Every structure is written in C-alpha cells, then in structure tokens.
Amino acid sequence: MWSLPKQAGLFILFCALTSLFPATLQGNEQKAFLTFSGNLVTGELREAPLNLVLNELKGKKGFQVQGEEKVKGATVSVSFHETPLATVLARILSRFNYSVIYDRHDRLVGVFIAGKAGHYQTRSSVPRSIRRHFPRRKGSLPN
User: Fold this and answer.
1) β-strands 64-66, 108-116: how paired?
2) pLDDT tens, residue by residue, 74-88
3) Residue 85's beta-bridge partner residues?
4) Does residue 38 sit within a domain?
5) Checking CA distances to 88, which of 18, 100, 108, 109 falls within 20 to 30 Å?
C-alpha cells in the first residue's frame, strides 16, 4: 500500500469539503446561496439584492436580462428546493412586471423586466344603487 504526503491529503480533503458547500452570491455570503442541478435550482435568499440574484442565475443558466436597472435596490427573501428555473423566476420577480422569452425549442433565452407591479383594485361598472335591485345568484362573488 502506498501513502500520500500529508500536504496532498490535506489538499484533497480541502477540495472535497469546498465542493460540498453551495455557491454563495459574491459579496452576499450571509444572505443567499444558489445551487444548480440540471434544470433545477435550490436556494435560500434572505433580503438578498435582486440584481445579484439575477446576475448569478443568468451567469449559470446563460440567458439575457433586459431592464435590470428597474430592480436596482430591490431585495428578495424566498427559499426553494429543486425548483424549475421558470418557477424560480416567477417567485423572485413576483413584485415586478416581466416577460420570459423562450426559443422554439422551449429554452429560456431572456427575461424582460418592465418595472414594478402596480396595485390595482377592481370595481364594478354598475353603480351601487342599481346593484341593490338585483339579487345575487348562488356562487357569485361579492363586490
């Protein structure tokens, strides 16, 4: 049986241990990590800067992002385990209006961020005084 020098053994141990830990976003070691397994993403984000998260995703998955300046200063807190990339994007961009662009082979090629999602309230076009005269049907939604 042959033996390795002590330094080589320590180097192999160091390499094995560092490969077990997930990649952290640069400059944000305490707040976020992402790991990639094929088309699935696992991550834990706690008040992580959204622009760093998008940079990590686009760097690993190779898609383009337009409108990144619209998320400047935004943070995201979310966790997911072995989740498809489309679902991850939907969760981290839920506060923004965005479009996802696929090629003809259903591969993600880009994300276009239009801006923050606005709050809206739906209103009935029928005045309240007229609505009182018509009884509600079973199963109809309240206004």
Assistant:
1) parallel
2) 999 999 999 999 999
3) none
4) yes
5) 18
